[in-house]
Specification:
With 234 residues, the protein is of the alpha+beta class. It has one domain (34-214): Glutamine Phosphoribosylpyrophosphate, subunit 1, domain 1 (4-Layer Sandwich). It contains 6 helices and 11 strands. It has helices spanning 9-12, 85-101, 106-119, 161-174, 179-193, 214-233, and strands spanning 38-43, 46-51, 55-57, 60-63, 69-72, 77-83, 128-133, 138-141, 147-148, 154-157, 202-207. The strands form 3 sheets. Strands 5-6-7-8-9 form a 5-stranded antiparallel beta sheet. α2 crosses α3 (106-119) and α4 runs antiparallel to α5 (179-193). It is globular, with a radius of gyration of 19 Å. Belongs to the peptidase T1B family. HslV subfamily. It holds the Pfam family Proteasome.
Length: 234
Amino acid sequence: MTSKPPATCAHIVELSYSGNHASPLQGSKSPEIHATTVLCVRRGDQVVIMADGQVTRGSEVIKPNVRKVRRINDGRVIGGFAGATADAFTLFERLEVQLETHSGQLTRAAVELAKAWRTDKFLRRLDATMVVADARQSLTITGNGDILEPHDGIIAIGSGGPYALAAARALAQSTDLSAEEIARRAMQIAADCCIYTNHNFMLEQIQSDAANDPLSQIAEEDGKLTASGASEST
C-alpha cells in the first residue's frame, strides 16, 4: 500500500494567469496574477508608482510601451493597474467619480468602488488589480472586495510583483535612496527576473505627507530598539 505524497501549495491553490497561461480552479475566487509589474513606494515626502510597458498575449509581446500609470482627481491621486487596459480605465473612471462624491477621501472612495466592483453585474466581470495613492495613503484594490494598505508603504502587483516587492523592501531597509530610485532599481530587478516585464518604465509621483511615512517610522523604531539593546548590554 503506497502512501500519498504530502500536500504542497501547488496542490492546494491554483492561480490563473492573464493570457491563458493557466486555468483557475472551478468556482475559485483566487486573484489572477497579471503579466506585468506595478510598484508603489512611499518614502519621506515622496510617493511613486512605477510600471513596465509590456503587453503580452500568450507567448507574444504585443506592445512594449503601454502606459499603466495615471493621475486622477486633478492630480491629487496617482494609480497603476495590472490586467485588461479597458477594464482598468473603466475602474479608474468609477474611482474618480467616487473621489468627487466623497470630497477626495481615498479610503472612502476605494471602499465604495470595491463594493460596486464585487456586486455590480457589469463591474464584477472586469479583470484588473489597482494600486492607488494620495499624499497620505497607498492602497491595493481588487475585484474580490479587498482593500489593502501596506505596513511599510510598499506595494507590488503583477507577475513580477514578488521580485519588485522583495527588492524594494531590501533597498528601503538598507539604503537612504529616494522613493523614485528605490522603485527604479527594484523594477530593474523584476524586469530581469520576470519574462512578462520589460525595462520601459513609466512613473507618476506626488508629494507625500512625511508625517505618515511608514518607512521612517519603522527605521525610528528599529533605532530605538538597537539603542535600548546596547544600553542593556552595558
